[in-house]
């Protein structure tokens, strides 16, 4: 579908407010010229407790992130990996907002071109009522063995875009 360098990205977080909550996991699939170049993921120590509801949803626990790097510790490498690439995310405002907030907290300016797969789905399939990730998976026959984990969800986005014409 696309010929430029891009990353299909998903983040898991401690909540929904980028101004307060923090990232607990980042995963992405990098694609160039239509081919997967690399998959990358890491847990992130958010520096705060993970609420029980989020833990139940994602399976990510305080114990799992206790020894994970902080966002600050991995920010330089992550910025290098994302720089200059189209960022593709489901409900991109959420993921992109969290990335920008986390980078800003460590004094790094991050800006990217963004494609939202929710908006893409709405444009391509206006007759459909639901465009959440589970609905896309069901509609397009996409399997995901580890739903609500960053790399697995990023893989779903890659698969979705490879199936749309």
Account of the protein in words:
With 165 residues, this protein is α/β, with parallel strands linked by helices. The protein is 41% helix and 21% strand. The protein has a five-stranded mixed sheet. The model has no long low-confidence stretch (mean pLDDT 96).
In short:
By secondary structure, this protein is an alpha/beta fold. The chain is built from seven helices and five strands; from the N terminus they run βββαααβαβααα. Strand 4 (86-89), helix 4 and strand 5 (114-116) form a beta-alpha-beta unit.
Side by side, the strands of the main sheet go 3-2-1-4-5
Query: If you average the pLDDT, what whole number results?
Result: 96
Uncertain runs are none
- Proportion in helices: 40-55%
Number of helices: 7
Q: Could you tell me the strand content as a percent range?
A: 15-25%
**Structural class category:** alpha/beta
User: Got a strand count?
Assistant: 5
Q: Shape, please? A: globular
The gyration radius over C-alpha positions equals 15 Å
Features:
alpha/beta, globular, single chain, 21% strand, 165 residues, 5-stranded mixed sheet
Describe the SSE topology.
Elements: E1 6-13, E2 23-32, E3 35-43, H1 52-58, H2 62-65, H3 71-82, E4 86-89, H4 92-105, E5 114-116, H5 117-124, H6 133-140, H7 150-163
Parallel strand pairs: 1-4, 4-5
Antiparallel strand pairs: 1-2, 2-3
Helix pairs in contact: 6-7
């Amino acid at each position: 579908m696309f010929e430029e360098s891009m990353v299909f990205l998903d983040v898991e977080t401690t909540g929904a407010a980028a101004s307060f909550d923090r990232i607990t996991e980042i995963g992405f699939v990098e694609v160039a010229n239509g081919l997967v170049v690399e998959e990358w993921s890491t847990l992130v120590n958010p520096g705060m407790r993970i609420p029980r509801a989020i833990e139940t949803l994602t399976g990510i626990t305080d114990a799992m992130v206790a020894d994970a790097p902080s966002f600050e510790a991995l920010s330089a490498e992550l910025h290098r990996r994302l720089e200059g690439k189209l960022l593709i995310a489901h409900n991109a405002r959420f993921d992109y907002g969290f990335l920008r907030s986390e980078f800003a907290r460590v004094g790094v300016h991050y800006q990217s071109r963004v494609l939202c797969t929710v908006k893409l789905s709405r444009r391509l399939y206006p007759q459909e009522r639901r465009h959440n990730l589970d609905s896309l998976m069901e509609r397009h026959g996409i399997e995901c063995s580890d739903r609500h984990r960053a790399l697995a969800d990023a893989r779903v986005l890659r698969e979705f875009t490879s199936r749309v014409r």
